[in-house]
Predict the 3D structure of the following.
Amino acid sequence: MTSGKVNHYLIIVNPNAGRRKGEKDWDTISSLLQKAGFTYKALFTKAPRHAIDIAVSHIENGYHRIIVVGGDGTMNEVVNGIFHQKRFLTSDISLGMITVGTGNDWGRMFNIPRGYAEAIATIQQNNSFIQDAGVVNYYHGKNQRSRYFVNIAGIGFDALVVNKTNKIKMSGKRVPWAYLKSIITSLMKYRHTNTKIRIDDHEIKNDTFNISIGICKYNGGGMMQLPGAIADDGLFDITVINKIKKYDVILNLRKLYNGKIVNHPKVKTYKGKTILIDSMPLIHLETDGESLGHSPFTFNIIPRSIKVLVGMPSLH
């Protein structure tokens, strides 16, 4: 093992992010990094979950400054690597991002510029913010698994939409507004689910259309389902959309993007540290745009645990 800390950057590149922009634009990005004076080791991911393995092994060898070149899913994998490594406190590892993904909702929360030169300049400014993270226990078949996340978990309709969107991306098709298209097509077959939700000491039973649980505000390429989220308050924000007519979803699409969906009579909002969800039938989950498994779920907040490099001095 390398002694001490490795002071140059580990850059984890997802070549498939943003319809292969990670691969296509890497020469441009690497040239800008070199021009800005960065010294780094760059590694390309080769399969799902590879970024987790890269992060764990290199942090164990002393890397504590990481740049993600990818989208929200790549960021999620690197965060999971940070939590799985044993060498440093998670909040002692600096995490920057150059966004090449299609959604970039985490970057939107933290004012990460979309331009490569501007994103690199943001990393150079070293303006750090220690945000909360969440961890969810879920099931894949009969096996219980867990996943850390730093943006939003979607349960129910969101999970179906993300699954359909990811399939469009994996097919290699260039489909503008893939997420919005998936919303419309998913409405045709989605059914409400009877859920029991426990938020700390408060229990809710209802027929549920969708549940959003998060640290940040945005998902789905700019939707704002958690407009009141504060990334370091030690609490999850929760938005529950109860049983709703399908035409009502379409009529209120704009409100999903401007945050006003929380004012709809079928929508309730909550805050909490621990969330338990059970359902009949099983209900599915996505975190940070990655499709996972099914209920029952247990969510726990991990306050101020991930140090990120952001584009503004205050998030409040």
About this structure: The mean pLDDT is 91. The longest strand covers residues 290-309. The radius of gyration is 19 Å.
